[in-house]
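Figure-free illustration: sequence to structure, shown twice.
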Amino acid sequence: MKKILFCISLFVFGLSTVYCDCTDSDVEQYKKEASSINVSYKINKDIVDAFGDRVYDGYVVTFKNLYDNYYVEDSDTGIRIGKDYLYEGQTAENNTYVTENITKGAKKLNVYHNGCSTVIKTIELNLPYYNQYYNDELCDGVDKDKVKLCNKWIDKAVTYGEFYNEVSKYKKDTEKGNFADNIVDFFKNNYITVIVAVLIFIIIVVFTSVRKKKRLVV
């Protein structure tokens, strides 16, 4: 009872987000309500950097079914999305929140109920990085399924040195593998010729050895 009165008093004095201990049944109910919250994203083509150049990996993230008593918190930046946390670049309508404040990379977005400090739900979101080196001539002829750094979108930021080292290593390893494969293919396709050549070589060696022995005997 004291906890309930304490929470009510906090609310009355103007604290819109009140953290009180939740019962297990509360948490289970909140989880059911929050199960419909979902997130999607698209590239924001309007973002530019300080020099006026387009930023290719800026995003607009949309949360749907985010009801008034709930909010989402980015565990990396601490940015919150919800009724009581409308920043510049965020809009809200019919329990749908649109924001430009979620940065690229792998994210863990925790869903909270306003009256509870327990994480109700965790949404994993991966906003890929734009790879400015994907068109580099070093990627010509490279299998992009095997070399992720030759793809337009990747899961981490890389320097040109990291890009160069990984792609160069792949090419060297591939060349070694191709050389060995070529030798194997040659033997597969020409094994009769190889066997005949070996036999002829053995006959010549034996014949030469026998002639030398005969000369020594004479």
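We now fold a second protein in the same way, so the two outputs can be compared directly.
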Amino acid sequence: MIFRKRFARVTFVLALISLAWLILGIFELAPLILHIPGETNLRAHASVTLLFLLLAAWAFWNEK
């Protein structure tokens, strides 16, 4: 159970960092460095943010 809680906290912090990077990238204050072939840079960064949020939600889900 401790691993799951730690995993949730780490992924939530990574999601916040990724979200901040995404917002700064929208305003062109930070470069959007993720490149996925066939996708725009903005969409790739948004996907990473959502992935981290999904992992954090899974880890916090059903916590007793």
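Summary for the second example: The longest helix spans residues 2-26.
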